[in-house]
UniProtKB/TrEMBL annotation, chain A:
InterPro entries: ABC_transporter_permease, MetI-like, MetI-like_sf. The lineage of its organism: Bacteria, Bacillati, Actinomycetota, Actinomycetes, Micrococcales. The keyword Transmembrane applies. Keywords: Cell membrane, Membrane, Transmembrane, Transmembrane helix, Transport. The chain crosses the membrane at residues 32-51, 95-117, 129-149, 177-202, 229-248, 283-303. This is Sugar ABC transporter permease. One of its GO terms (biological process) is transmembrane transport. Belongs to the binding-protein-dependent transport system permease family. It is a multi-pass membrane protein. The keyword Hydrolase does not apply.
UniProtKB/TrEMBL annotation, chain B:
The keyword Membrane applies. It is a multi-pass membrane protein. Its main location: membrane. Belongs to the binding-protein-dependent transport system permease family. InterPro entries: MetI-like (IPR000515), MetI-like_sf (IPR035906). This is Carbohydrate ABC transporter permease. The lineage of its organism: Bacteria, Bacillati, Actinomycetota, Actinomycetes, Micrococcales.
Length: 315, 272
């Protein structure tokens, strides 16, 4: 009971803080207005990020199945998880996919953006619309479109290969080819957004730098390598970070393309969490997998930020 | 001379463009083939018999009106709320100073690194315990806050001079009137861009509707489409047409707002 009075007591003693407090009191709305402005976002953030995060951590130590009581079973989920070959397989496949898709998405989007921003090529406006179209297409429909194209017996790609005298490739039943297909579809779908980021950044590179370098005899490759690429570093960082996170959580497109097949060989980690959590109704176990994935994502984000910071220090 | 120099770039550009458009073109053209022609060899790019029978079947067998209505409700309501909440939050971040604003800013930044897919089992329980399981609200409410939207508005409002605010305050405009009557109308270009993006995100959303909706009457288009793909024997004739129909609203939206979308400097919002 005495706590409030002790906290109140020192207030009138020093002169300066009182004056600041008085000045602030003259505009109480300036303190409360921003609080009101962010209030909705704070509530939603607490409800849909903090609460699920905390709940996930709690569930990961329980055998909760979505109904009934939450029974705590210690670290059993984690010991089981770290011995679960299916978990390692999904996680490993996700890492392979991410390691391949980040460079692929980056190089393709940057290359197309350079072509579209260069003054040499013809028909850039229409080409830009074509490259942008996949952005309109949902991951589910994108998966369907490419499944139709790469069907083993009925797809036009295998049809063309056979017409040219080859043998149809096993796009659905060979795990490696299926992963390559996922990679192609992912790149095709993500080019639009990354390309827009790059085009905006390329336009911001001062023309005078490039002209000066040209006068000094630098060829196109040297100008790109020494001037444009370093100036694009912040955008590159953004694209790489977003692509990494996007690839780690790839789900919808694969569902429609081949459902992680053949078998479970291309089941990525989010699909693994989905299946254990919702098809096997093992919320506790799936939450443990979620927590591991969350730690991995935090580590990746921190490493990439560090890398970005150290590069900034160097330059 | 200039034409010759541009020749290789033009060729590379258009070969790539052809590769990008081919899957969609092949898909759309196939949807106009009659069922028997879909699998008959040799395959041809253009249908020999143009027909819309696939569309008729898809429209009959598939409750499109319902799925369109559900998806439109979700996309429009979420978009309106997203734009408004992002504007308020971004404005507070740009124009007020307090330690708790900085803390909350970092929280919002963290949401970009930790998407909800990662914690979906517990997110699902939260939505269920809030009584929003199997309702459209269960998809709308959790999707309202997006870091991208908040950053876009923050970036924009920080370029508005403080003098404008001071002048309004001297004229006796309150903090909320200042935001609603002066700042929000100023930010209309950003609101349009975010609205387009938000509409696209929600129209194409899959994972939340999949988790939250049980009753097929409340399915959104993407979940409904997935139910055809997930069948043991895919009815390609229906699937092709149904997928093409689902694309129409986005194509129309793009045709209307092409200029805003293509010139959108989304990077300004994302980079911070």
């Amino acid at each position: 009971m005495s706590a409030p009075s002790t906290r109140m007591a020192p207030e009138p003693v020093p002169l300066a803080p009182t004056r600041i407090a008085a000045r602030r009191r003259a505009h109480p709305s300036r303190t409360y207005a921003p609080l009101a402005f962010i209030s909705v976002a704070v509530v939603l953030f607490a409800l849909f990020f903090v609460w699920p995060g905390a709940l996930g951590l709690i569930y990961s130590f329980s055998d909760y199945r979505g109904v009934g009581d939450v029974n705590f079973i210690g670290v059993e989920n984690y010991t089981e998880l770290f011995a679960d070959e299916e978990f390692y397989q999904s996680l490993g496949r996700t890492f392979i996919y991410t390691a391949l898709s980040v460079p692929a998405h980056y190089v393709v989007a940057l290359g197309i953006a350079m072509l579209l921003a260069s003054s040499l090529a013809k028909g850039k406006t229409s080409a830009r619309v074509i490259f942008f179209l996949p952005w309109l297409i949902s991951p589910i429909v994108a998966g369907v479109i490419w499944r139709w194209l790469f069907g083993e017996s009925f797809g036009v790609v295998n049809f063309l290969i056979r017409e040219l005298g080859g043998e149809g490739l096993r796009w659905q039943t060979d795990a490696t080819l299926a992963l390559i297909l996922i990679l192609i579809v992912g790149t095709w779908g993500s080019t639009a957004f990354n390309m827009l980021l790059f085009i905006a950044a390329i336009r911001n590179v001062p023309k005078s730098y490039l002209e000066a370098a040209e006068i000094d005899g630098a060829n196109a490759w040297v100008r790109f390598r020494r001037i444009q690429l370093p100036l694009l570093a912040p955008t590159s960082f953004m694209v790489i970070l977003l692509t990494t996170i996007g690839s780690m959580k790839e789900f919808a497109m694969i569902q429609a393309l081949n459902a992680g097949g053949p078998g479970t060989q291309n089941r990525l980690i989010v699909q693994y969490i989905y299946q254990t959590g919702f098809e096997r109704a093992d919320i506790g176990y799936a939450s443990a997998a979620s927590m591991v994935l969350m730690v991995i994502l935090i580590v990746i984000a921190v490493i990439q930020m560090r890398f970005q910071d150290s590069r900034r220090d160097l330059s | 001379m200039k034409n010759l120099r541009g020749f290789p770039s033009t060729v590379i550009l258009w070969v790539l463009a052809a590769a990008y458009i081919f899957p969609t073109a092949w898909f759309v053209l196939s949807s106009f083939k009659p069922g028997f022609e879909l699998f008959s060899l040799p395959l041809t790019l253009f249908p020999e018999d143009w027909t819309v029978s696939g569309y008729a079947t898809a429209w009959d067998r598939f409750d499109f009106q319902k799925y369109f209505l559900n998806t439109t409700i979700v996309a429009v309501v979420t978009t309106v709320l997203t734009v408004f909440v992002s504007a308020m939050t971004g404005y507070a971040f740009a124009k007020y100073k307090a330690w708790w604003l900085k803390v909350f800013f970092i929280c919002i930044l963290a949401t970009t690194m930790l998407p909800t897919e990662v914690i979906m089992p517990s997110s699902f329980i939260v939505v269920r315990d809030l009584g929003m399981y199997d309702t459209l609200a269960g998809i709308i409410v959790p999707s309202i806050i997006t870091a991208t939207g908040i950053f876009m508005f923050r970036q924009y409002f920080s370029t508005v001079p403080d003098e404008l605010m001071e002048a309004a305050r001297i004229d006796g405009v309150g903090e909320f009137g200042l935001f609603l009557r002066i700042m929000l109308p100023l930010a209309k270009p950003i609101a349009v861009v975010l609205a387009i993006f938000s509409f696209q995100w929600r129209w194409n959303d899959y994972i939340w509707p999949l988790l939250i909706l049980r009753d097929p009457d409340r399915y959104t288009l993407q979940v409904a489409l997935r139910s055809i793909v997930g069948a043991d024997n895919i009815d390609w004739s229906v699937l092709l047409s149904a997928s093409v129909i689902s694309l129409i609203p986005m194509v129309v939206l793009f045709a209307i707002f092409q200029r805003q979308i293509m010139s959108a400097d989304i990077s300004s919002g994302l980079k911070d």
